[in-house]
Structures are given as structure tokens and as C-alpha cells.
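dude i think i finally got it to work??
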Amino acid sequence: MLSNRLIVRQNANEKISFSGDANDFILIAIRRKDPDTLFFQRHLRIEGNTELGLHVKNLTDLIDMRFRPSILRFGFLRLAELIKAGQKEGVDQQDRALSSC
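look at this
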């Protein structure tokens, strides 16, 4: 953050990184999966400043789905339905955090 603006820099050294399956990140965003559970199941990897990572996680927990724009909220909910349907079909999901998204 610089002057209350998010600055994204290419090739910058990150202080924290989250790695995992895009589907899991969507399910975390709409509260269908718990990030702590995914972390301990090795489906989510957190590297770098773990204290900062905990602050980011706690911040995302504060964002209520009801206050997100409706098109975004309903889009995420529809994606969650598709993800859950795919998971029921037995898609291999082991060691997902070990590969990049």
C-alpha cells in the first residue's frame, strides 16, 4: 500500500504467499471451506511472514458475503455449486497445494 493505493509490482519480493487450488480459494471466499482445515490437510500452503498471513486471513473473515456486490456474490455461489458437483465426481485432489495455480 502506498498513499492508500494498492501497488502491484512485477518481480517484487513478497512478504507472504498463499498457494493452493483455485477452487479452494473460491470456496474459502464464500465460506464453504475453512482455510485452517485446508492448511492442515496440505491443500493450502502459506509461505513467508506467517503473522501477516494470519492478519490477511482474519481480515477476509471479517468481510460479510451480504455486503459484496450481488453479481459477484451470486457468481461465486454458482461457481461453488459447480466445484462441489465436480468434487462429488471423484476428481483427484491430493497434494494440490504443491502445484501452482
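Residues 70-88 form the longest helix (19 residues).
im so relieved honestly
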